[in-house]
Structure formats: C-alpha cells, structure tokens
Amino acid sequence: MSRDEPITLKLVLANNTKKDIIVVESNILADYKIDVRDQRGTRVLPTPEGKDLLIATWGGRRVVGNIAPGESKTDTLEINKIYAMTNLVLTQ
Fold first, then answer.
1. Is 74 in contact with 25 (CB distance < 8 Å)?
2. 34-84: pLDDT as tens digits
3. Residue 55: its pLDDT value, please?
4. 54-63 — which CB contacts under 8 Å span 24+ positions?
5. Staple partner for 20: which of 14, 66, 71, 74, CB 3.0–4.6 Å?
6. Which residues contact 73 (CB under 8 A, 6 or more apart)?
7. Residue 91's pLDDT band (boundaries 50, 70, 90)?
8. Residue ranges of the domains in the chain?
9. How many angstroms separate the CA atoms of 56 and 77, rounded?
10. Which residues pair with 67 in a beta bridge?
C-alpha cells in the first residue's frame, strides 16, 4: 500500500431481526464515531479538509428510513481524506 492510495472504511448496518429497523441519518461523520490512532495509540489529527467536514457534521439534514429484516445499509468513506495518515507506518 502506498501513502497516496485511498484507505477506505466500509460500514455496514445489518438488520438481523424479524422487524423493520428505523434509522435516522444525517451525515456519515455525525452518524458514526470514528477514532483513528497511530501505531503508538495516539489519536491522528484531521486533515484541513477533514476539519471542515467534521465541523460541518452538526448541521444539515435528517433523513428517516428503515432497514427491512435481512437487509443492510452500507456507507463508505476515505479515512485518509479526513485524517492525516502521513506519519503512520503502513502495513498490509
């Protein structure tokens, strides 16, 4: 993996019950808490673009939907666009 290659995080919310699950979505960065740390356990700081995205998560829309039994909802984001991964040791 090169330093310029995207690091993609895929989040899957699956309904393993027999009833619909109601979900309220706003922004992926507001809907999920993501804690990125380096190899020493220190939190990784956001990139300038990431700071803007993280600040913008608190406003905006709310969408109500549902996930039917046996169905799932998938979100993806490029972590290295949000967090500064430049000083991390990358392994495969």
1. no
2. 888 988 899 999 998 888 877 766 566 778 999 999 999 999 989 988 898
3. 77
4. 54/29, 54/82, 56/27, 57/26, 57/27, 57/29, 57/30, 58/30, 60/26, 60/27, 61/26, 62/24, 62/25, 62/26, 63/24, 63/25, 63/26
5. 66
6. 12, 13, 23, 65, 67
7. low
8. 8-82
9. 16
10. 21
